[in-house]
Specification:
DapA-like, Aldolase_TIM, 12 helices, lyase, 4-hydroxy-tetrahydrodipicolinate synthase activity, TIM Barrel, Dihydrodipicolinate synthase family protein
């Protein structure tokens, strides 16, 4: 029997629609999740950094997961369960399971620069929830680097089943495959999609499909299918936008692109500030160029 791995394919790290008063618009969020699936994406990742989970109340955070599940089904929803404490992260994983989700995504400890023993204990605790865990390696923001050797140990202990790789170092894909061949590599940064797809990635936890799902899904499938004749020109067209996923202002940029293409991106909660005029102009120009090319 083939094992179900709900983290494979294009899973959109969803931006969260906010009203003008910065309250969560759950109806629009449900519509957004359904729209993404209708336009070629395989699922969503609520409560990631793009979903501004750090500034949500516990009640909001739980409801976001429940809203996504109600909209597209638990098999298509892999929530982020990051928290400062391992016990809290495990509780979020348990909440995800109770809501009907089949997997969760977990950052390492990020309140301090954790050592290897702490990282292992953190993933061990959340794995006790019973749901498969996909690790999220983001050493830029967390200051904790899940290097290939540590990922292989986490996988060998049975704590993780995949990894969202956001280091930007595409060379790691080959080392991970050597050390842990059964660990699924997921593209974690939009602007290295082609490189990691060629290296054997099994999925993409994606940002820019929030605005351009159809074109991004087409790019991903061409890339993992080895159709470079189709993938490379599309990658070049989209790259001026995809690279924003690796910038500090990625949430604001993606929400602006959503607004431009007729979706509701809307504001961000503080402390995220509005884009500077030059940044806004760059995002707007790149988005409008993609729309003019028929990529929306």
């Amino acid at each position: 029997m083939t094992e179900h791995r709900p983290w494979r394919g294009v899973l959109v790290a969803t931006a969260l629609p906010l009203n003008d008063d910065l309250s969560v618009n759950h109806d629009r969020y449900a519509q957004h999740c359904a729209w993404l699936v209708e336009n070629g994406c395989d699922g969503v990742v609520p409560n990631g950094s793009l979903g501004e989970y750090q500034v949500l109340t516990p009640e909001e955070r739980a409801r976001v997961v429940e809203t996504a599940v109600a909209a597209i089904g638990g098999d298509r929803v892999m929530p982020g369960v990051a928290a400062y404490g391992s016990a809290e992260a495990r509780r979020w994983a348990e909440q995800a399971g109770e809501a009907g989700c089949r997997a969760v995504m977990l950052l390492p400890p990020n309140a301090y620069r954790a050592d290897e023993r702490s990282v292992l204990a953190h993933y061990a605790e959340v794995a006790r929830s019973g749901l498969p865990v996909v690790a999220y390696n983001n050493p830029i923001d967390t200051k904790v680097d899940l290097v290939p050797e540590l990922l292989a140990r986490l996988h060998g202990e049975g704590y993780i089943r995949g990894v969202k790789e956001f280091s930007g170092d595409v060379r790691r894909a080959y080392r991970i495959a050597e050390l842990a061949p059964e660990l699924d590599l997921l593209i974690g940064a939009d602007d290295v999609l082609l490189e990691l797809a060629v290296a054997g990635a099994k999925g993409w936890v994606a940002g820019y499909p929030n605005a351009l799902p159809r074109a991004c899904a087409e790019l991903y499938r061409a890339a993992v299918g080895g159709d470079l004749g189709s993938a490379l020109p599309l990658y070049r067209q989209l790259h001026p936008l995809l690279r924003w996923d690796s910038q500090v202002e990625f949430v604001q940029a993606i929400k602006l692109s959503m607004d431009i293409v007729g979706r509701h991106g809307g504001p961000c909660r503080p402390p995220r500030a509005a884009l500077l005029p030059g940044q806004e102009a760059a995002v707007r120009a790149a988005t409008e160029k993609a729309v003019a090319a028929g990529l929306s």
